[in-house]
UniProtKB/TrEMBL annotation:
Gene3D superfamilies tied to this protein: CHAD domain, Hypothetical Protein Pfu-838710-001
UniProt-listed SUPFAM superfamilies: CYTH-like phosphatases
Cross-referenced PANTHER family: INORGANIC TRIPHOSPHATASE (PTHR39569:SF1)
InterPro entries: CHAD_dom, CHAD_dom_sf, CYTH-like_dom_sf, CYTH_domain, YgiF
Protein name as catalogued: CYTH and CHAD domain-containing protein
PROSITE patterns tied to this protein: CHAD, CYTH
Coiled-coil region: none
GO molecular function, one term: inorganic triphosphate phosphatase activity
Pfam families: CHAD, CYTH
UniProt-listed CDD domains: CYTH-like_Pase_CHAD (cd07756)
Amino acid sequence: MQEIELKFLVSQARLKGLMRQAKVKSSQDIHMAAHYFDTPKQALAQAGIGLRIRQEGDTWVQTIKAGGDGMAARLEHNTVLDTDHVQAMLDGNNLMPDLCLYKDTYIAPALADFKVKKLAKTLTRQYVTDIQRTTRMLENNSNSLEMAYDEGEIIHGNDDSQRQPIQEIEFELVSGELAFLFATAKIWCKRYKLCLSTVTKAEHGGLLVKGEDYSPAVKADLQQLNVNKDSSMPAFIRAAIHNCLLQILPNSSAIVAGSEANSHILQLRIGLRRLTVALDTFNKFSEQLNPEWQPILKQTAALLGDYYELAYLTSHIEPILVQHGAPSIDWTIEVEHKTIKPIDAVSDNDLQLALLELIEFTMNDPCTEAQSDILAIDKLSKILSKKYMKLLENVQIFNDKDDNGLEFSDLEPDSYTYKIRCLLEDLRYISEFAAPLYGKKKSKRWLKCLTKAQKSLSQYHEHIQYQQYYQQKAVTDTDALYGAGWFAASLKTDHKRCQKHLDRIQDSATFW
């Protein structure tokens, strides 16, 4: 069957209030000890599969989870095991799952890439979860869902001194409408400042085994963009948003859990940018889009961008300059003045509620909309052409300024370079969403050309910003003049590189 659930991290400040709602007369407490299995190289985890044997009260259940939409839905297969047989394996310290249970079941395709007999021989216990779960059923007419609050720890399978605490709440739809699950989750999210998390207990355990705190940052994966020539307008926008969320949610989950890695911040920022481009560009593809999403997403991306630029300057740019002989500059004061940290921006309740609504939107049936009989491809060519012509107009301005012998970086570079950079990003992301509906060969060449131009403009814009950072710093610390001069000297080369890539766009054949 398909398991549909939403998982959240719990705010410590709101825990007491939440527990008053979780622990009511009808709620139940149960102790769960689960043993998770994988190969030594974690082949199952790499395939997105979780395999466990869990004690639930007096019952032992073998569970496998796989597939799903990467956000709220996963395939799940549960089998109640013979208690005496499990106890005998435990006594002999040879507890092991039975993979034969999945033969000829709906979960079997998840294991199709494995030689099951060989896999069974290589499985080992990777980690154990020791969880105290409080459950409560929430019902409304024919709708029913289970709220489960989990608190406990994950323990390394070979070294019980290595442990990681777990504290999360889940809402799983038992029966009824999807809307009831999301409506309930939004109420609890708003009231108790919950933060969405896509990190499963299996993923937590895998990280513990590898000695890592967070999963690597997730980049956009266009292979998971599920669109084709027959996609309707409502289906197309849902697929585009879903693809963006697959990048956004893992990175936002890491940040709300405490990650301060530049990679998570950068990829979340890019994911939000891709999402706002999709919402802005395809706003007429669905009548169910909420115009209130964009300002929230854009504000979060801007806050992350401000923080990332300074953090990257401190952790990467400054060491490079020092390595080349520059005097060291202390940016501590500037960093401390950033009162809104990434965790604050991402934990903001408005963003979390918007993400919940976006997940719900992608899971709603596009066939219920009035425009479900209109193909997306019938609209995309006009959209792409309009964006392309807008970009060409600005490229011409770029070239005219250069022909007049004016330094491009001297003509309000912060605003102008940002504008043309945004136009390139818009066209790139729209092209990526649309490419699967057209010829692969032509779209691949186009995207390669567009991506190079966008990256060169981004680098140019960033170098201008870094030059300004050092120039402003030089007011109080003259040692910063080295950095200001370094980036000022790089702008001419950056400018020529940008012009070269922009000229190639003008000469390139479009794919639509």
